[in-house]
């Protein structure tokens, strides 16, 4: 069964550094999402992306965050200058249609030191 | 806005049925999902139901939806130790231009051998 893949599985970065989290959505999917889960807390929506542009973003998704689909397969989340509070598990998801079930990757655990 | 509430813990004996409950507040047309998260892993889509349905069954899983009370439940028949995980209820509004999933805090299911 096709799946969403995320790399790396664990990223350790110094505070203030830039980090790029990578995702390969399911190949025929058109809608892409990033969520994050701070340890012990809810999964929170960050951003949705469709037709090469952001369709919706949450309050968490401030100017330090950006997303990109640089080619036909990858979907990336960049954090420009990481803060300690950015430490979390980041999940990528994709779906074929906007009201179809979202399929999640296994996540990237981001640890900011 | 929408909010999704779940109890945090559930403990059952192997072979018994587990019932995980969820309440949601938004009365708009919506999809409701159950995701499973095993330790250190991603979010696995288990099942979903549209708000015009009352029940959905898929092998050992039964989803019941009480629209009047905005109450959703997931029943796992013949619970196995491999079912030990965190179960997340999630809601997706449709027709409101929003694609994000709103998650509950998750119910940690512990299966006692």
Quick take:
The complex is a heterodimer of chains A (113) and B (113). Chain A is an all-beta fold and 113 residues long.
Structure in words:
The complex is a heterodimer of chains A (113) and B (113). In chain A, 0% of the residues lie in helices and 50% in strands. Chain A has 113 residues and is mainly beta. In chain A, a hairpin with a 5-residue loop joins β4 (31-37) and β5 (43-50). Chain A is globular, with a radius of gyration of 13 Å. Chain B has no helices and eleven strands. In chain B, the strands form two sheets. In chain B, strands 2, 4, 5, 9, 10 and 11 form a six-stranded mixed beta sheet that branches. A five-stranded antiparallel beta sheet of chain B has the order 1-3-8-7-6, with no helix packed on it. The radius of gyration of chain B is 14 Å and the shape is globular. Classes of the chains: A mainly beta (113), B mainly beta (113). The A-B interface holds A 6, 31, 33, 35, 41-45, 48, 50, 55-56, 58, 91, 93, 98-99, 101-107 and B 31, 33, 35, 41-45, 48, 88, 90, 92, 94, 97-106.
Task: Give the secondary structure arrangement, pairings included.
The complex is a heterodimer of chains A (113) and B (113).
Chain A: E1 5-7, E2 10-13, E3 19-24, E4 31-37, E5 43-50, E6 53-57, E7 65-68, E8 75-79, E9 88-95, E10 103-104, E11 108-112
Parallel strand pairs in A: 2-11
Antiparallel strand pairs in A: 1-3, 3-8, 4-5, 4-9, 5-6, 7-8, 9-10, 9-11
Chain B: E1 4-6, E2 9-13, E3 18-24, E4 30-37, E5 44-50, E6 55-58, E7 61-66, E8 71-76, E9 85-93, E10 101-103, E11 107-112
Parallel strand pairs in B: 2-11
Antiparallel strand pairs in B: 1-3, 3-8, 4-5, 4-9, 6-7, 7-8, 9-10, 9-11
